Amino acid sequence: MEVIPVWDRSEFISALNDAIEITPRSTAVITIDCHRGHLDPDIATMPVAPEHARTVVANVAQLLSLARATGMPVIHVILQNRLLPDGIVEPMHNPFWKAVEEANQRLTPTRHSTISGHNLVGSRQTELMPELGPEPGDLMITNKRRLSVFAGTDLEITLRQLKIDTVILAGINTNTCVLCAAFESLNLDLRTIVLKDGVHSMHGDDLHLFGLQIIARCLGWVLTLDELRAKVDVRTPTLTPQ
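^ that's the sequence the OP posted. Answer follows.
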C-alpha cells in the first residue's frame, strides 16, 4: 500500500475547538448504535473490541449524565433489521453487504461477525446498553435501517421541533454511521460535534482514526469528554430563602 504523508492540521483543529461555544438548550446528544449488537462482547453480532467497547460505554454514560443535568435532549438511534416478506433479511438487499456475506468474508478484521444475523428485530442485540438508559425523557428512534441516522427516520423533524442547532454525536462506528451522521448534519447546517472518546469502530483502529480526521478537518468539531465538559456551564439552581 502506498504510504501517503498525513497533513498536520492540529493548529486548524485547535483554533476551531477553542472557539466553539455550546448552548445546552439548543444542543441535542445523539447516540448512534450504542446497542448490544456492537458493545456487548457476550452477544455482539458485529463486535467492537471489548476494551474499546468498555471505554465508549463509560464515556457516553458520562456524556449523557452531563446532558440530562444541563437540559440537553438525549436521542438514541438504533439499527434494527427486519425479515421481509420475501424471506430475506433487510441487509441482504444491499449489494455490498450481500457480496461480503456470499464471499464468506466479514466486516470486522479479527472477530467473528455476521451481516445477515445482525440486530434482527426482537433480538437482544437491538437493546440499548443498560448503562446508557433509556431514562425518562430520552427519545428512542429504532427504525434506522442503513448507515444513515436520518434516512427513513423522524430524527430531522424531531430536531426541528426541539429547535436544535447543535448536535453531539457518539457511538459506533466512527468511520461509517457516525461519519455519515456528521456529513448529513453538516448538510442540514447543524453545528456538529463528535465525542472523540465516545466513538470507535469494529472496522479497526486505523479507520476509527481516519474517520476522526475526516470529521475534524472537513465536517465539524471533535472534542474529548473533558473538553466538552469545560464548555458546558453546569449551573446548580440555588434556592432563595423564604
